[in-house]
Write a structure and sequence with these properties.
heterodimer, A: two-stranded antiparallel sheet, B: alpha/beta, Rossmann fold, seven-stranded mixed β-sheet, globular, binds thiamine diphosphate
């Protein structure tokens, strides 16, 4: 990609008309240009082959990650992937209404999630199961949403993890406001400062809310890390359908730094997110991180990716698997051996089995739950509506069994 | 109405086909695109994927990417650009993926789409259709089951309709596209692929008027009025009531703005009783409007107050609870009992 200086004054043959004459996305296979390479500016610490790359800028942010700590990150990713696969299977078996897979995005989520500190706040979209796990939320607590018994009931304050948001982009403005609050309360300015991180997809970057979040956070110097997981697809629409330039470069237009990190590299995601959070803690936020990654499964269990993407693309990305490269590094450097990997796999299987058992035994919510907590203050009209409905229900012979 | 809706009489394909609502919409869109090359489809995933409900399946393949646009992911953008395209002379049909996501576009709908014609004293026409899959019963997560139609019916300048069967789906979508006014087209998503509702659609007839309600079943003891997904519930309830010797009339509203209450008044004058059924919450809803107007017009004919069977005045609950929230056959019959027992 050319640098911003170049694209402010396009050379003849580089403008929109010239671009129109280039092969259409159809001809170059939709999305392929964008989906295989992260480009020269991709920050990477661990190659797909599991080799450590030195980074003068970011090495110091992972200086503490020794063999043991890296094994911890490996374990996190294996557990989360195994639970994700189990939930996917449970949906197929009719036990969940829907599942939103994170397959392939484990490094982006564990790397960034583990970069957060207790005092930080995370605003997820709906695919951030790995971040939830990293924030200490029991994976089982996510299942109510997907078994459709609740809309997400975890203690968001205790975990520093906001409820999931399904409306694309909304949480970006909510996070911006939250981060402004941290700033207004004087909680930023030194090493112990607070920061907020907000997760969204490449598709979301087209939403007005995300743009407004960029503007607000810049104007108020909000301590906010925008963490865009560019998994290449917004359901069937490639990133090209959202942007003409790499997403991280947009930050420049709003006046804050943007960086593209290899989203399949857990070490790089950890380092870059620590750096960005640090910037925010010290009052230098906001920062945009584009984690360049890939959604290795369908968008959700209701989606059919064979309609819009090529299996070749998936095969190419499998070679960049976020878990395999850590495994290769650990093995090559004598930090772990086969019995260790087998042990983690067995632990992951148990993790998944617990999830399954818990899910199958989740109680059905009672009918009065429909009316619960609509308002903070009681509403007489709604109370009457509830009583009327419960009386109606009790008129059925089988009402007690409902 | 600008462009008359054409029948497909002359075509070699059989004029009578057995269709679901989803397939009927697909064919209706296709017919509209064939009839007028100014008709465009815009939305998220409407191209290759055919929309998340596959309603636009195959259209991009046959009409190309300039007529079926996979847009960036932004509802305000979809509707705002459709307004501009319409000003330019196109007839855009926007797809909103699920009703719960229409709100980023609400500003464009209420500030521009609904008002441009009025603001310019009729110099600008904005023949935009916004298709909105709506309603519950599909076991979905939050924001995928709501019924926000009353919010749009309250905005002057917009027309709001909803279909409940394949023949209407096929014709109403074409009529909405042919209308020179902006039309919010609410589609009962849980009925899209419902095999029970499959029925014959004669694509060669001339359709009845778009903005008109219709009596679907005649009866003498009480009137049920509904629209969209609730129509099937009412028809099923009427069939069940008949077995108990009760005769219920069922009216499909079809048009929510303007409301066509003529057939409802007429019916209530005969039956003396009205039960209004919808999935939307009751307060300040289409049902409220019906109740107000019926008591005004039919005061001396009413034997019982107008009753409403609706979703509750709560946000849509987690879907494990939606059987409680959604009006079902039993709740409708219970209301019939109350009305008749007055
Ligand atoms: C405002 C809004 N419009 C449409 C949708 C339906 N929808 C759900 S996910 C999605 C694609 C999101 O893509 P992206 O932002 O890239 O995130 P990803 O799912 O790939 O992580 C769409 C269109 C929605 N949830 N919210």
């Amino acid at each position: 990609m050319s640098s911003p200086e170049q694209w402010t004054h396009p050379e003849p043959g580089e403008g929109p008309a010239a671009r129109a004459a280039q092969p259409s996305p159809e001809q170059v296979i939709a999305g392929l240009r964008a989906t295989t390479e992260g480009g020269a500016e991709l920050t990477q610490l661990l190659t797909p082959e599991g080799e450590r790359v030195a980074s003068p800028q970011f090495d110091r942010y992972v200086a503490d990650i020794d063999g043991e700590a890296l094994r911890g990150l490996y374990r996190d990713m294996v557990l989360v992937r195994r639970a994700d696969r189990e939930a996917n299977a449970m949906q197929r078996q009719g036990q969940l209404g829907i599942w939103v897979p994170l397959l392939g995005q484990e490094a982006a989520q564990i790397g960034s999630g583990r970069a957060l500190r207790k005092q930080d706040m995370a605003f997820p979209s709906y695919r951030e199961h790995g971040v939830a796990y990293a924030r200490g939320i029991d994976f089982r607590e996510l299942m109510g949403i997907f078994r459709c018994t609740d809309h997400g009931n975890w203690d968001f304050k205790a975990h520093g993890f906001h409820p999931y948001t399904i409306v694309i982009g909304n949480q970006v403005l909510n996070a911006t406001g939250y981060a402004m609050g941290q700033k207004f309360e004087g909680k930023v300015g030194d090493e112990d400062g607070e920061a907020t991180i907000v997760y969204f997809g490449d598709g979301a970057t087209s939403q007005g809310d995300v743009h407004e979040g960029f503007v607000w956070s810049a104007v108020y110097d909000a301590p906010l890390v925008f963490f865009c997981q560019n998994n290449q697809w917004a359901i069937s629409e490639p990133t090209e359908r959202q942007s003409r330039l790499p997403l991280y470069q947009r930050a420049r237009g709003y006046g804050f730094p943007g960086i593209r990190v290899d989203g399949n590299d857990v070490l790089a995601c950890l380092a870059v997110t620590r750096w960005a959070l640090d910037e925010c803690r010290h009052g230098n936020g906001p920062v945009l991180i584009e984690a360049f990654t890939y959604r290795m499964d369908a968008h959700t269990t209701t989606d059919d990716p064979t309609r819009y993407r090529l299996s070749d693309e998936l095969e190419a990305w499998k070679l960049k698997d976020p878990i395999e490269r850590v495994r290769a590094y650990l093995a090559r450097n004598g930090h772990a051996d086969q019995p260790y990997f087998d042990r983690i796999q067995a632990e992951a299987d148990q993790f998944a089995a617990d999830l399954r058992e818990f899910t199958f035994n989740m109680p059905e919510p009672p009918p009065e739950r429909v009316f619960a907590n609509v308002y903070a203050e009681p509403s007489a009209a709604l109370d009457a509506q509830r009583e009327e409905y419960l009386a109606y229900l009790s008129g059925f012979a089988t009402a007690g069994e409902r | 109405m600008a462009a008359p809706v054409k029948s497909r009489q002359d075509e070699s394909v059989s004029a009578v086909q057995t269709l679901t609502i989803g397939k009927a919409l697909n064919l209706g869109l296709r017919a509209a695109m064939e009839a007028d090359d100014k008709v465009l489809i815009l939305g998220e995933d409407v191209g290759k994927l055919g929309g998340v409900f596959r309603i636009t399946d195959g259209l991009q393949k046959d009409f190309g990417e300039q007529r079926v646009l996979d847009t960036p992911l932004a509802e305000s953008g979809i509707i705002g650009t459709a307004v501009g395209l319409a000003v330019r002379g196109f007839r855009p049909v926007c797809e909103i993926q699920f009703e719960g996501f229409i709100f980023p576009g609400f500003d464009q709908i209420s500030s521009q789409l609904a008002k441009l014609h009025y603001r310019t004293q009729g110099r600008i026409k904005v023949p935009v259709v916004v298709r909105v899959p709506y309603g519950g019963g599909i076991g979905a997560v939050e924001h995928h089951s709501e019924s926000p139609e009353s919010l749009f019916a309250h905005i002057p300048g917009l027309k709001v309709v909803s279909c409940s069967n394949p023949a209407d789906a096929y014709w109403m979508i074409q009529q909405a596209i042919a209308s020179d006014d902006p039309v919010l087209f609410f589609e009962p998503k849980r009925l899209y692929h419902n095999g029970q509702l499959k029925s014959e659609v004669d694509t060669s007839t001339t359709p009845g008027p778009l903005f008109a309600s219709r009596v679907l079943r005649e009866g003498t003891d009480a009137t049920l009025v509904a629209y969209g997904p609730s129509v099937k519930v009412c028809l099923d309830a009427a069939a069940a009531a008949q077995e108990e010797g009760r005769s219920l009339e069922v009216i499909d509203l079809r048009t929510l703005s303007p409301l066509d209450l003529g057939p409802v008044f007429e019916s209530v004058r005969r039956t003396g009783r009205l039960i209004s059924v919808s999935e939307a919450s009751a307060e300040s809803s289409i049902s409220s409007e019906i109740a107000a107007r019926v008591q005004q017009e039919c005061f001396y004919s009413l034997e019982a107050p107008v009753l409403r069977v609706t979703g509750f005045d709560t946000p849509y609950p987690p879907s494990k609870l939606e059987e409680h929230f959604l009006p079902d056959l039993d709740r409708v019959l219970h209301a019939v009992d109350r009305s008749l027992g007055w």
